[in-house]
Model the fold of this input.
Amino acid sequence: MGNLETDSKFLKKAIIVNIVGTILKVCGPLLTFVMARIFGAAEFGIFISAQTLLLTIAHSSTLGLDKGLYWYLPQNGLHNRLRYDGIMESFWISASIAILCTAVIFVGSFTPYISKELPWYALSLLFYIGCYVFGTASEGNRHPQNAVFVNSFLTVSLAPATSIVLHFMGVPHALPLGLLVGQMVGACVLFVLIRKQFPEMPLHPRFKVSRVLLKYSLPLGIDEFVSSFLIRSSLWMVMLFLGPEKAGAYGIMVTISNALQTIRVGFTPILTPVVAGMDKGRLKTDLKPVYSYCVFMVTFIQLMIGFFIVLFPDLILGIAGKDFIVQPETLGILLLVHLVAGFGGMSYVVLNGMGKSLYTLILDIAMLVVALITGYFLIPAFGLVGAALSMLCYNIVAIICNNVYLFKMGLQPYSLRLWSQVVWILILIAFYIALNTQVFTLSMIEKAVVYVAIVAALGAYGFLVKKRMDKDRNAVSAGGLK
Done:
């Protein structure tokens, strides 16, 4: 049976893996910036839009079965099921849908409604499925390092690197072919790794997918489709209202700010199985220390990255080229979006871990409506800033709804020690405003010195807060043993 001490040990180990993955993932965006500079804003804007469409289709094709494995695999032993039950069943169902979608895109390309270039991108769909299912299976089996290495480093680095090489070799369709190579290699590597974990697992399972897994996963699958549109709605509306060049610039800033989102998303496969293993009694006693520790670590790492982006935005954007430095204040708003989501958005993970997938589906549908309405009015009026404000609006509304729901269930997962994180977030935002309004200016050397000082201060602060949180958790554990 799970207990707070066991959960804490797993969280600490998984957090280290997540941090390493975050460091490795820097390679992908850097190569993407270089790729954007080589291919130009217009062509890169089309690539970003096609890739986001592909991601939406791929996530939807899994029917949520990949995400369901976070929750299902750890319970196989408890319910006397085969250790690998659910993995290949999930893959073959998802792969069948992906192949069907690919065929539809190929046939549709002969009509005026689908671009002739899109079928080249669609070739990657099947391998996206492999990365999703086999990656989440590794995480559900408490081997997060496999998915981190492949999905956070290998695929995101190999794809742009291949596109750049193919471009200089004069190979046509270099962008979609690079994407294909990256996803194909990633899926194959993950399959080999999952076979090492389950050598007895047959490639063609005899049984149908478990009704329990399907019932839990289907709402997640529909929600994946909705949330994919939700997350990418601002980019598509920028493409619609402002054109591909502005979409390319916005895509670069979203990519940069996603360094903060990556931290939060990386905690989903960590926190979900921990919460799923808690009964009602443990939710009352153990959820607060576990959740607060995760929120603290998410925002702490985000602050480290956020201060770097705030101090050196021109340096980062300049990698992609001057064409992509458009309304740079947009980047500050996007950073705020992910900082707010990092602090309050983890409540979404808790609700899914508690089996509230239908609620999260309904909420995301409502938030998509909010995103479309706010984007429709804000993007034409304020350009890229309007797109970022639209993201901020629906994120704040969703966070309020999720936390109100938790409070109504009698759960208050936030430790009072997290208020200091709010202060640091406000300091970061104030720092960003001061620099961009030129309240003071800093040279490159001065920025470097300031950043080192901030990191040192954050490090000392983090050490003290973590020590106090460990003390609080030990007190809860001791109380639970009595």
